[in-house]
Amino acid sequence: MEKDNMSIPFKEEFDKNDTEKYIKSYMFIKGYAVAKKLPQTLVALSLARRLHEGQHRKDGAPYISHPLKVCSTLINYGIDDDVTLAAALLHDVLEDCGDKLPLEGAELEVKYRISGEVVDIIRVLTKESGLDDHELSVYFKRIAENPKAALIKLSDRLHNSSTLYNLSYEKLKKYLRETDMFLIPMASYCKRYYPEYTNAFNILKSNIYSLNHSMTIMMERFEEMLAAREECVQ
């Protein structure tokens, strides 16, 4: 890619409020992409940072820390595909950065030179709110048909599952149910039908299951405690 076509500058300045972990993740991914010669990942890294600028997660962390974690997790699990890593970095931009992408993602290809395959994966991963079980089933089935999208979705769920303490009781129950009903079965399916990614799918499934199981047990104990307290009051 020629220098004149680079719409996103590769800046290395970070705000004083950025966490050390965020900076390390950013530089780790950049160094990996340079060493492995992954041009799409390099562009996506800088673009994701610009598009998520000013956004924060519920715990107050810069939002960019989430796609960085999703991408670095895949790298740590042996994924070195340029398309997959680039899509991992941009997986939330259509969902959360609509004001900066008024053409519903067409800018990613035309303006920023993101490949069509990467954009297609981002679109597959983009989720509408308020889906019922049937609609969720269709959504996850579509993801399962693309192993690269499935890897990203599972890595996304793994990170989100480790930060559930910000959810309300009802949202937490819904999240755990969704993981148990759709994510874990999808991981099993992908592990079986995409042998080239067996190791990554196996680790993702195991870690997601462990987190979901632990949180489910904690929820059950909490419900038992509430029930016992109500009996005492009566």
UniProtKB/TrEMBL annotation:
Pfam families: HD_4
The organism's place on the tree of life at top rank: Bacteria
Molecular function terms, GO-annotated: guanosine-3',5'-bis(diphosphate) 3'-diphosphatase activity
SUPFAM superfamilies cross-referenced by the UniProt entry: HD-domain/PDEase-like (SSF109604)
Name listed for the protein in its UniProt record: HD domain-containing protein
